[in-house]
């Protein structure tokens, strides 16, 4: 898995349809797992606070929140850009 434990714990908190014992795969569909638009906004704030990163406007799309891998890569890119 390309992400850290904190990311997975935060993300799982917004995925009510993903069983606690089910693996969070890189290509898990976050919408099918229960991430809705309000959850995406709340998750965005939680990630920004936890990782001291700001998502820029072009990263604020449904595509960014499609899978854990895409979300982690976008956040990692935002962190590198800010550094």
Plain-language structure description:
There is one protein chain. The protein has one domain: Non-ribosomal Peptide Synthetase Peptidyl Carrier Protein, Chain A. Helix 1 (5-12) runs antiparallel to helix 2 (37-51). It contains three helices and no strands. It is globular, with a radius of gyration of 12 Å. With 83 residues, the chain is mainly α. The mean pLDDT is 92.
Q: Outline of this structure?
A:
The chain is mainly alpha-helical and 83 residues long.
Unreliable segments (pLDDT under 50, ≥5 consecutive)?
none
CATH class: Mainly Alpha
Major sheet: none
CATH architecture: Orthogonal Bundle
**Class of secondary structure makeup:** mainly alpha
CATH superfamily: ACP-like
| Count of spatially separate domains | 1
The CATH topology corresponds to Non-ribosomal Peptide Synthetase Peptidyl Carrier Protein, Chain A
- On the 0-100 scale, what is the average pLDDT? 92
If you compute it from the alpha carbons, what radius of gyration comes out, rounded to the nearest whole angstrom?
12 Å
Along the chain, the helix and strand elements come as HHH
Number of strands: 0
Shape: globular
- Our estimate of the beta-strand percent is under 5%
Number of helices: 3
Distance between the termini: 24 Å
Looking at this protein, list some descriptive labels.
single chain; 83 residues; Non-ribosomal Peptide Synthetase Peptidyl Carrier Protein, Chain A
